[in-house]
Amino acid sequence: MDSVLSSESVAAGAPGTGAGGMYVRDSVRQSVKLLIVGHFAVGKTTLVGTLSEIRPLRTEERMTQAGAPVDDLSGVPDKTHTTVAMDFGRLTLSDRLVLYLFGTPGQGRFKRLWEDLSRGALGALVLVDTRRLDQSFEIMDLVERHGLPYAVAVNAFDGAPVFPEAEVREALDLHPATPLVTCDARDRASSARALIALVDHLIATDREAS
After folding, report:
1. DSSP bridge partners of 110
2. For strand 150-155 and strand 30-38, is the pairing parallel, antiparallel, or unpaired?
3. Most CB within 10 Å of its CB: which of 75, 89, 170, 189?
4. What SUPFAM superfamilies would the database entry show (predicted)?
5. CA-based diameter of the chain, in Å?
6. What percent of the chain is helix, strand and coil (3-state, nearest 5)?
C-alpha cells in the first residue's frame, strides 16, 4: 500500500488540485477511502470540510427537542445542527490518486449507517474530546470490531483540558502502536498532520502484514 499512499502525498495535497476544482482528473486511476469517526459533536464535519478540496457534502439537520434525550450537549451548548447520514470530502494526492473522506454520524442510533460506510475503508481517524473521553469507547469498539486500523486525534477545543499523552492513552486503553496526536480540526495544516499520522500507521500495518 505504501506505493499507493504516502505521508508526503497527503502533505502535498491542496484545495483545488482536482480537475477544475470539482471533477476528478481523467488521469486518476486509484482511490482510497478513509473514515473520520468519533462521538457526537467532536468535530468530524469541521475536519472533513477543512481538508476537502471540493465543497464537502454535508447531511446536517437542525437539532430539535425530540433528540434532546439522546444527544448529550454537555460541553457543546451552542451546537444547533448534527450529521444524520455522512460528511463527504475529496483530496487529490497526485495525478493518479484521490483520497475520499467519509465522516460518520456520532450517535448510537446511526450505528447501522456507520457499518455501511465502513465497507471498503482502509482505516479510520478517530477524533476525541478530552472533556468527554468516555464517549469515545463505543466508537472505538466499532472500529476495532470491523478490523479497521486507526489513529486517534485529540481535537483541541478552546478551553478543553490538556492531559499528558500517557494519561490519554491509558484512559482510552490504546495499543502502544496506535498513533495519538493532537489537532485543531479548523486548521488545515493541523488536520493534515493528523491524517498523515493515520496514513503512516496504515503503511506500517500493511508492511507488517506482508
Report:
1. none
2. unpaired
3. 89
4. P-loop containing nucleoside triphosphate hydrolases
5. 51
6. 35, 25, 40
CA pair distance 91, 162, nearest whole angstrom: 30
Give the integer Cα–Cα distance in Å for 110 and 44: 15
Question: Taking each helix axis from N to C terminus, what angle separates 188-209 and 44-51, rounded to the nearest 10 degrees?
Answer: 90
| Helices marked H in 13-164 | 44-51, 111-118, 137-145
pTM for this prediction: 0.81
